[in-house]
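Whiteboard transcription, Tuesday session. T.W. wrote the structure tokens on the left side:
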């Protein structure tokens, strides 16, 4: 489908585009809601996510700054007899080549429209029981199915890679090497879709897949509206899914992934680790195989020592038995993940469980309930040891989630600007360990992109 464009300035483009890969038609009500700029409409959400896609590849993690740099950008959904088109006004020129939108960006833009419309008309409209655990898991399944991410009759081969967007060059290069080794073994890659440790594994795997002549491989990016503006999708992503909140995003990772590699990162990576370990520590999940490898270059060995010490202090040795640490060995990292995925396959076959969605994993409501990081909610977290370890992990995860929001999410940044840092309180020994861990993240520039100054959005009460 041809694009009709005119360029008002070298820095911005006006264009009307249609989907190059095809998408389901939208109802008139869906189009109306997407065009509605009122408080109850979806236009503001659509604009934020679309702008993030159009600035794909930008080295920036400032959610507010992206709108300041493109204040005149707007997007309109047009309903036509043969489907829908998108009218882009003052769109970033970097998304176009010779007046035509880059094909991959076109695909991701329509993925944004697809997911926002589906969540609003199906999930938020009350089709699912979001007040209980089974209902939330069903909603996660339906969003992923609607996005065509779930593929039956495909052997388990999806490696989820977690890690920071703000990492050093040698750490980024290492993630590429691991991705390359994963790709040589035929594994697809799923990440949070942004830069840094989310881009490197995809880039490495893409080269390996080309060498192995493996076509139609998947590079899945799973994000949510509060994150996407600060971590725009990287150029390798060919399947983008926007979940409605961070909790459903995290559940999507562990439901569709067959194994997880964790690279060095900051508070967001710590949040992901605590989320998964909290689930794996649940007694019902004790016998379910789930390969989890922490891996990085030799220069990052101290990082994993800090993470390991913090996890053992807070969650105990039982948590440490659910992961392995591999330093400076990309091939061994990939071998361990591949062997672990074979165990996952055998378990699923024996228990007649689906390869494409991990139904057997028990995820309690405490891990699924959306957490709004207000000052009051952050202060009320139960960060004490007088509770089951998996529930302590749930509140520790929320603490890190709040810091992520204060660092990069628009709502969190505004709250910190208005009311000052979040105050975090709890068990004195845990607080000292948390303070030391966060201080190391700051010193290693893991809170913001390298070269950016960082003002802490939190205060640990010691």
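and on the right, the sequence the group agreed on:
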């Amino acid at each position: 489908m041809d694009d009709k464009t005119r360029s008002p300035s070298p820095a911005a483009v006006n264009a009307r585009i249609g989907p190059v890969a095809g998408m389901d038609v939208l109802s008139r009500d869906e189009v109306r809601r997407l065009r509605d700029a009122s408080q109850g409409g979806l236009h503001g959400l659509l604009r934020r996510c679309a702008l993030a896609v159009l600035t794909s590849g930008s080295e920036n993690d400032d959610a507010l700054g992206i709108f300041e740099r493109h204040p005149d950008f707007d997007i309109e959904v047009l309903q036509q007899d043969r489907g829908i088109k998108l009218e882009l006004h003052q769109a970033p020129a970097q998304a176009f080549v010779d007046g035509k939108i880059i094909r991959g960006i076109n695909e991701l833009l329509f993925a944004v429209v697809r997911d926002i419309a589906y969540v609003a008309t199906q999930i938020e409209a009350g089709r699912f029981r979001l007040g209980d655990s089974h209902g939330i898991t069903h909603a996660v399944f339906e969003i992923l199915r609607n996005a065509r991410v779930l593929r039956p009759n495909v052997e388990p081969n999806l490696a989820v890679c977690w890690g920071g967007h703000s990492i050093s060059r040698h750490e980024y290069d290492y993630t590429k090497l691991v991705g390359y080794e994963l790709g040589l073994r035929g594994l697809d890659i799923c990440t949070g879709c942004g830069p840094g440790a989310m881009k490197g594994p995809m880039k490495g795997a893409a080269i390996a897949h080309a060498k192995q002549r493996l076509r139609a491989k998947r590079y899945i990016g799973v994000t949510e509206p509060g994150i996407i503006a600060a971590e725009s999708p990287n150029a390798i992503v060919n399947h983008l899914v926007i979940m409605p909140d961070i909790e459903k995003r995290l559940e999507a990772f562990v439901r569709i992934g067959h194994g997880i590699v964790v690279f060095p990162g900051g508070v967001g990576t710590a949040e992901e680790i605590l989320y998964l370990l909290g689930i794996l520590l649940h007694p019902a999940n004790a016998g379910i195989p789930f390969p989890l490898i922490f891996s990085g270059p030799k220069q990052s060995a101290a990082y994993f020592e800090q993470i390991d010490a913090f996890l053992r202090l807070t969650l105990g040795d039982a948590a440490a038995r659910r992961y392995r640490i591999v330093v400076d060995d990309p091939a061994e990292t990939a071998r361990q993940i591949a062997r672990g995925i074979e165990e996952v396959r055998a378990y699923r076959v024996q228990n007649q469980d689906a390869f494409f969605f991990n139904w057997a994993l028990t995820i309690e409501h405490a891990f699924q309930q959306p957490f709004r990081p207000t000052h009051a909610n952050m202060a009320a977290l139960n960060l004490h040891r007088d509770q089951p370890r998996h529930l302590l992990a749930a509140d520790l995860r929320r603490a890190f989630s709040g810091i992520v929001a204060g660092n990069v999410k628009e709502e969190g940044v505004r709250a910190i600007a208005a009311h000052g840092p979040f105050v975090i309180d709890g068990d004195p020994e845990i607080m000292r360990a948390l303070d030391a861990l966060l201080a190391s993240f700051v010193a290693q520039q893991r809170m913001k992109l390298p070269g950016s100054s960082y003002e802490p959005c939190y205060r640990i009460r010691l």
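Someone added at the bottom: The first strand starts at residue 4 and ends at 9.
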